[in-house]
Input
Amino acid sequence: MQDHTIVDRDEWLKARIALLEREKAFTRERDALSTERRNLPWVEVTKPYDFITGNGPKALSELFGDRRQLVIYHFMYGPDWQAGCKSCSFWADNFDRNIIHLAARDVTLVAVSRAPLETLNAFKQRMGWSFDWVSSLGSDFNYDFDVSFSEDARANDAIRYNYRPSQFPADEAPGISVFYKDDDGRVFHTYSTYGRGLDMLNAAYHYLDLVPKGRNEEELPYPMDWVRLRDEYGKG
Output
């Protein structure tokens, strides 16, 4: 950790107030960016997608429940994986306590993975989660939303992730996609984000951004090397 200048309270307040002006400008810019995000044009989803749920097969339109807005977290969990992605699990630890608040604002949150439903349910029980998690196994959904990559695409360097050609190192990737359902039951894709665009959905990272050491990832082999499944911290 780098050495820090030590000052008296008055000097600290002067520096803090100067930083506050930048923080306020950042907040205003973020508000403007959020408005632009909401004003993006929509694409009607006409291709049928079926999901395997605890209540039987469901179409994309049925994942909304009785709400108009749907947020899908693309959770990295391939059909033959032994466990869910530790990074996606880090994000998923933020979901459960927010579900009721999102519902109050007409939003349903669902996680989707290609692993079989029974596999997802077992891992969900291990992690102590209760949010809705459905399987897209057998569907093109993950491929169409650029979070799963075929062997052919990987072999031919034809992967697109985060809206550009990518050398993504796995056959599954994380992301979030947002949908809206109108009065006639039509479903529209309104937004998707990937990579660092997911940062804003992880409260732990925002806390770490406040403390002196920050995320403290600079010397690691890769930024999230320190992250563990919640029941594996302290196991070496």
Notes: The helical segments are 9-38, 86-92, 99-103, 117-127, 141-144, 151-155, 203-208. The longest strand covers residues 187-194. The chain is about 30% helix and 20% strand. The chain has two domains: 1-39, 46-201.
